[in-house]
Write a structure and sequence with these properties.
Layout lengths: L21 H8 L1 E2 L4 E2 L4 H10 L18 H11 L14 H10 L7 E2 L5 E5 L14 H9 L18 H11 L4 E2 L2 E2 L9 H10 L8 H12 L1 E4 L5 H15 L5 H19 L1
Parallel strand pairs: 4-7
Antiparallel strand pairs: 1-2, 3-4, 5-6
Helix pairs in contact: 2-10, 4-7, 9-10
């Protein structure tokens, strides 16, 4: 873990700079693959560079109490409460995650990743993907297999994941909004075991969780409805160019504007060569 810091931590590093998974998604945010056009020379990307330069150079895990296997999340929550951390990488594997993080962090806002038009991307990290080979001799049979995952009685609701079907997704939200009543009194809900790390943080902070509110359910739906980018494995060539040019900026040998211009030219050249 010390060699590969938790991607939830917000930090940057000069030798191939990164902000968790953000580097790959930032690359995709400023490339339009359909138009075969890069937009690294936009004001939005320059502003992103300047903002990122203000983040800590490294996240120093050696200063943390590593006696507990849950130290990463707990320490991050404590840092936020102490005003020492501004951003937090939020992975919502279940609609209930929003409620848990809100209980720990108070009022939270999903800022997403910047886009070339000044908006934001909420990013989907799929657990799996389906694809049918265009050269398949049995496309009908392949599609029959894929469609089973979208049927009402199909295996669409995996453990600890957001379901594929909207009706199953809404069923989960309704379940989370149901109060836990004992002897006529609402008592804290029992958090699913798969959320063990969140449970550890909640226990550490002595926080009880109750049924999800209408406001929290609306916030969850807003995050899901605004997903506009799907995570994909990085393009090796473009990622290397990105890391090389942004490293020069973070090393202080080049301005943000110069970095954006050079990065734009190099990446656009690659896109043009690929046609």
């Amino acid at each position: 873990m010390l060699d590969e810091p938790d991607v939830n931590s917000i930090y940057r590093r000069v030798d191939g700079f990164t902000v968790g998974h953000a580097d790959n998604n930032i690359i995709r945010s400023f490339i339009d693959l359909e138009a075969n056009r890069a937009y690294f020379d936009s004001d939005e990307f320059i502003h992103w560079l300047e903002m990122t330069a203000r983040l800590p150079l490294y996240y120093d895990w050696l200063e943390r109490d590593i006696a507990s296997s849950n130290f990463s999340l707990i320490d991050e929550i404590v840092d936020i409460h102490n005003g020492e951390q501004l951003l937090y990488g939020f992975y919502m594997r279940d609609p209930g995650y929003f409620r848990l993080h809100k209980a720990m962090l108070g009022d939270i806002v999903a800022v997403g990743l910047p886009t070339r038009t000044g908006g934001q991307h909420d990013v989907l990290f799929p657990d799996g993907r389906f694809g049918i080979n265009r050269n398949s001799q049995h496309k009908d049979a392949a599609w029959d297999f894929v469609r089973r995952f979208f049927l009402p009685d199909g295996p669409v609701s995996r453990f600890a994941d957001i379901p594929i079907r909207i009706d199953r997704y809404e069923e989960r939200i309704a379940e989370l909004m149901t109060p836990n009543i004992v002897d006529g009194v609402e008592v804290p809900v029992v958090i699913d075991e798969f959320q063990w790390e969140l449970n550890a943080a909640l226990t550490f902070m002595d926080i009880d969780i109750f049924a999800m509110t209408e406001e929290e359910a609306a916030a969850v739906r807003d995050i899901i409805d605004n997903v506009s980018l799907t995570y994909q494995e990085s393009d090796g060539i473009i990622s290397s160019i990105f890391n090389e040019e942004t490293s020069a900026f973070f090393n202080g040998t080049r301005t943000a504007e110069e970095t954006a211009r050079i990065l734009q030219n190099r990446v656009q050249r690659v896109l043009d060569e690929r046609g």
